[in-house]
Write a structure and sequence with these properties.
By secondary structure, the protein is α/β, with parallel strands linked by helices. The chain has 9 helices and 9 strands. A 7-stranded mixed beta sheet has the order 3-2-1-4-5-7-6. A two-stranded antiparallel sheet has the order 8-9. It is globular and about 80 Å long.
């Protein structure tokens, strides 16, 4: 093989490893990973933290958008109406509908709470997904975002694992906390709470998983920012215009100053003398 051909093949290989696949193609692989030992540990910790962070009983309609095709978390919370939207028609799971997350088939301002469970980082266009979520949220509605922390041990391990494994869990956008906050503020979504969880080494060995309780307690007490995931709760704020009666408008008269002509040049009266 010629050196140029080898370099071209290596470049194509690296580009393919860095691409984020459509969520409809990766949900099957993500489903199997969430059934692994570390996937179950991560899911259990996320569920326990979300119990204290989800909006109160005033949120009647809950929509779940997740990287997995199963309703992993939506059944744990009490809402009058809850449903999930899946991304893959071949793996519908228990989803109520199948649609692209960046083009939701819903009217504007109809959902009280949206739970994004790893849906942003595994979507091809995460900013468009967040923009669509902001559209369907009601005024003062909440969006709860669960994202893999790229600065954690689990997040940093993808830069090595993606070259040796083709599993979808290692192909996602690295969404830093500060970057996500900028996106939220641009969409009039004000962050109200943020936490990080699941500390320690992201290994599947049972002995390592048993020692996580000690590391978890240290991380939570110290509020360390490098947990395997972080959760952000944001509230939608809208500014509504108050109409003013026509009678309250006042006519303002603006005086017109005369102009003077000096040396063939017209100068206004308020110009200073040269």
């Amino acid at each position: 093989m010629k050196p140029q051909t080898w370099l071209l093949s290596a470049r194509e290989y690296l580009e393919q490893r860095h691409l984020v696949r459509p969520l409809a193609d990766s949900q099957s692989s993500l489903d199997s990973w969430f059934q692994s030992r570390y996937g179950q540990v991560l899911l259990h910790r996320e569920r326990s933290m979300l119990e204290h962070m989800m909006p109160g009983p005033g949120a009647h309609r809950l929509m779940y958008l997740g990287a997995s095709s199963n309703r992993l978390l939506v059944d744990d919370f009490n809402h009058l109406q809850s449903f999930s939207i899946g991304a893959s028609a071949t793996l519908p799971g228990s989803a109520s509908a199948i649609a692209d997350f960046d083009a939701l088939p819903l009217p504007s301002e109809t959902i009280d709470t949206v739970l994004l469970h790893h849906a942003l980082e595994f979507s091809v266009y995460p900013h468009e997904v967040l923009n669509e979520v902001a559209r369907v949220l009601t005024p003062c509605g909440h969006v709860v975002i669960v994202v893999i922390n790229p600065l954690s041990l689990f997040g940093l391990s993808k830069w090595v694992a993606r070259y040796f494994s083709s599993r979808a869990i290692w192909s996602y956008h690295s969404l830093r906390y500060g970057r996500l906050l900028d996106w939220l503020r641009l969409l009039n979504l004000q962050p109200v709470q943020a936490v990080s969880g699941c500390f320690g080494w992201p290994l599947q060995h049972p002995t390592t998983l048993d020692r996580r309780s000690f590391l978890e307690s240290i991380g939570q007490k110290s509020k360390l920012p490098w947990g395997s995931f972080y959760i952000v709760v944001a509230r939608k704020y809208t500014t509504r215009l108050t109409p003013v009666k026509p009678g309250l408008w006042r006519s303002i008269s603006i005086p017109v100053l005369p102009a003077t002509k000096k040396n063939g040049v017209i100068k206004k009266a308020f110009d200073g003398d040269q």
